[in-house]
Amino acid sequence: MPWENNGGGGGRNTGGPWGQAPGGGGGGGPRRPGGGNTPNLEDILNRGRDQFKGGVPGGRWALVGGVLALVAFWGLNSIYTVEEAEVGVEFRFGAPKQELSTAGLHFHLWPVETVEKVNTSQNQTSIGSATGAGARANADDGLMLSGDQNIVDVRFAVLWSVGNPIDYLINVRDPEEMVRNAAESAMREVVGRRPAQDIFRDDRAGVAIEVQDITQAILDSYSMGVSVSQISIENAAPPAEVADAFNEVQRAEQDEDRLQEEARSYANTLLGDARGRAAALREDAAAYTNRVVQEATGEAQRFNAVYAEYVNAPDVTRKRLFLETMEQVLGGSEKVLIENGANGSGVVPYLPLPELRSGATNTSATGN
């Protein structure tokens, strides 16, 4: 054995491999700090040569196993799976292939080819809110200046999806951040052109549509391959520092609207009554007109009838008309008229006939 030649004094060393007996017996050569002899470099090389005299451990089967392990490792990296809501984009030496990998199991030549997976389902990016997917913790993101110089705190979300996975992967470094920045810039532009009431309640739908169009135009200019489906304004309110004053203004505007509605209701009531009275007056006027016309028609017919009789007997008709007229005229008179005669002078002197009549009436009443 190799350590048999390392003993001191030329004799056989029955100790350990370094020429020292296991029980601490003496052997030649320098000693290690731990109590043993320092090994010779030649001995170390000889031991290594003896161990590898038989070649590779395990022979050719070990080599075949190593090759199979490498093939298995390459196969595992060359096969990949695409989920249902994803598409895969394969890159060969960094250049994308135009064919997209749909859901299922696929193969590519790794490491010459690599694959990037893109989620094509709808994504949501929230802006100006500390909660929700993709939201930022900075509460000042939603503070914007409106067209009438009011500060508005707008919380909204962008719903978007990937339309062109290749453009999405290679044209912009951080697509999600780009969507956020484009939507926020578009919202600030639209809010800066409009009064605060449009964002609060009057025209939220119009603001959302306009922001969506501007955001889509910005993303298209960068060829991102992203399609914006909706802008959802979740909340629009004044900052907390001026919320009380703004609420007072809102209440005043609500009171103004309420009073205007009451005034319009009162005006409609008065107008209805006036129209009703006007209709009644028109009906009365129409009835009066009809009555006057009918009376005039009757008088004309009676006059024609009298005239026909007058033509047949003028003297009789003239006398009858005279007597009827005098009867109507003198029917309520208190004077007594007599005809001129041989012994009369014409008109009897005035007598207090009304007093006599009233006295006679009282007498008769007392007697009864």
UniProtKB/TrEMBL annotation:
Keywords: Coiled coil, Hydrolase, Membrane, Protease, Transmembrane, Transmembrane helix. One of its GO terms (cellular component) is membrane. It is found in: Membrane. HflC and HflK may interact to form a multimeric complex. Residues 77-250 form the Band domain. This is Protein HflK. PANTHER family: MODULATOR OF FTSH PROTEASE HFLK, STOMATIN-LIKE PROTEIN 2, MITOCHONDRIAL. Residues 242-269 form a coiled coil. One of its GO terms (biological process) is proteolysis. It is a single-pass membrane protein. HflC and HflK could encode or regulate a protease. Residues 1-37 have a biased composition (Gly residues). The keyword Membrane applies. It holds the Pfam family Band_7. Residues 1-50 are annotated as: Disordered. One of its GO terms (molecular function) is peptidase activity. NCBIfam families: hflK. Belongs to the band 7/mec-2 family. HflK subfamily.
